[in-house]
Specification:
Layout: H1 2-8, H2 22-29, H3 50-54, H4 86-95, H5 106-115, H6 129-232, E1 240-244, H7 246-256, E2 263-267, E3 274-277, E4 280-283, H8 286-299
Parallel strand pairs: 1-2
Antiparallel strand pairs: 1-3, 3-4
Helix pairs in contact: 6-7, 6-8
Length: about 300
C-alpha cells in the first residue's frame, strides 16, 4: 500500500531540514514535546503527510534548449471574461445555489406509469345495450347528414349544368328564330311594297280618268271649233250640222262665237261629236279614247 501511495506522491528534495524557530524549541526546554518525546496535543500527530505538505518542493528540471516551452496552468481568480458560454455557466453554477428539482406533474406521471410495460392497463368498460343503440343512432345520423350534404352538392352542380345547357339552347333557338323572322319580314315587306304600288297605281289611275277625259274633251272641242271656223270661212260655205252630247255642243257654240248662227246643233245620246258639211264628216273619236283609258285603268 505504501508503495502505491509513494508512486503518486511528488518527488521530495533530499536536502537538509530547515532549522525550526525558537518558539518551536521552547516547549522541549520546558519539558514539553520533543522529537524524542512527541506531544499528543499537536494536530500533526499521527499524520504522516503533515511534514510533506510543509516541505518545500524543488522545481522540475527544464532542458536547456532554445525551443523549450514551459507550460504552466493559469490560475483563474474569477469567472471567465466574455459572454456567458459553457465554461462561464459551469463556473457560476458551482457558486450559485441550485434550485430544487420541481416535482413531476400528476398527468405526466400517470402517462409515464401507463406507458410502463410493467403496469397492466385497466380493463375496458363494457358497453350497455342502451349506449350501443345511442352510438348506432348517432352514427346513422352522421351518415344521413353526410349523404344529404353530398346530395345537395350534386344537385347544385346538376342545376348549374342544366342552367348553362338551357341558356345555350335558348341562344341557339333565338338565333334560328331571328334568321327565320328576318326572312319572313323581308318577304312581307316586299309584298307590302308591291301591294302599295298596285293600290297607289289603281287609285291614281281612277283619279286621273276624269281629268284625262276632260282634257280630251277640251282638246276635241278646240279641234272641232278650228275645223268649223275653216269651213265657215269659205266663200260658199256649206250647211253645217253638229250632233253630240249637249254639254259638248254648248261648249262648242261658245267657242265659235258669231259663227255659231250658221251651224245647226243637234243633241244626241252619244259620246262622240260629229260634224257634217255636205260630203265632209268630222268625228272627234272621244269614245275610242275613253275606252282606251278605261282599259288601262282596268289593267292596273
Amino acid at each position: 500500500m505504501d508503495a502505491v501511495i509513494a508512486r503518486y506522491l511528488p518527488e521530495i528534495a533530499s536536502g537538509p531540514v530547515p532549522p525550526q524557530p525558537a518558539a518551536a524549541q521552547a516547549p522541549a526546554a520546558r519539558g514539553g514535546p520533543s522529537p524524542d518525546r512527541p506531544s499528543f496535543d499537536n494536530p500533526s500527530f499521527d499524520n504522516p503527510w503533515a511534514g510533506l505538505a510543509r516541505a518545500p518542493r524543488a522545481p522540475l528540471p527544464v532542458p536547456e534548449t532554445p525551443d523549450a516551452i514551459r507550460i504552466e496552468p493559469a490560475r483563474a481568480d474569477g469567472p471567465p471574461e466574455g459572454p456567458l458560454d459553457a465554461a462561464r455557466a459551469e463556473w457560476l453554477e458551482g457558486l450559485l445555489p441550485r434550485a430544487a428539482t420541481p416535482p413531476v406533474p400528476a398527468p405526466l406521471a400517470e402517462a409515464a406509469i401507463a406507458a410502463s410495460p410493467l403496469v397492466k392497463p385497466p380493463a375496458a368498460k363494457r358497453e350497455t345495450p342502451e349506449e350501443r343503440a345511442a352510438l348506432l343512432a348517432a352514427a346513422e345520423e352522421r351518415g344521413r347528414q353526410q349523404g344529404l350534404a353530398e346530395a345537395r352538392e350534386e344537385a347544385a352542380v346538376a342545376r348549374l349544368h342544366a342552367a348553362q345547357a338551357a341558356e345555350a339552347r335558348l341562344a341557339e333557338a333565338r338565333r334560328h328564330w331571328s334568321a327565320a323572322e328576318a326572312d319572313a319580314l323581308a318577304d312581307g315587306f316586299a309584298a307590302a311594297l308591291r301591294a302599295l304600288d298596285a293600290t297607289l297605281s289603281d287609285r291614281i289611275a281612277r283619279l286621273l280618268v276624269p281629268v284625262l277625259t276632260d282634257a280630251l274633251r277640251r282638246q276635241a272641242v278646240a279641234e272641232l271649233s278650228g275645223a268649223l271656223a275653216r269651213l265657215l270661212a269659205e266663200p260658199q260655205a256649206a250647211h253645217v250640222r253638229v250632233s253630240g252630247p249637249e254639254d259638248l255642243l254648248a261648249a262648242l257654240a261658245e267657242r265659235l262665237g258669231p259663227l255659231a248662227a250658221s251651224v245647226s246643233f243637234t243633241a244626241a245620246e252619244t259620246a262622240e261629236v260629229q260634224v257634217s258639211a255636205d260630203q265632209t264628216v268630222i268625228d272627234t273619236q272621244l269614245g275610242a279614247w275613253t275606252r282606251l283609258i278605261a282599259a288601262a285603268v282596268a289593267e292596273t
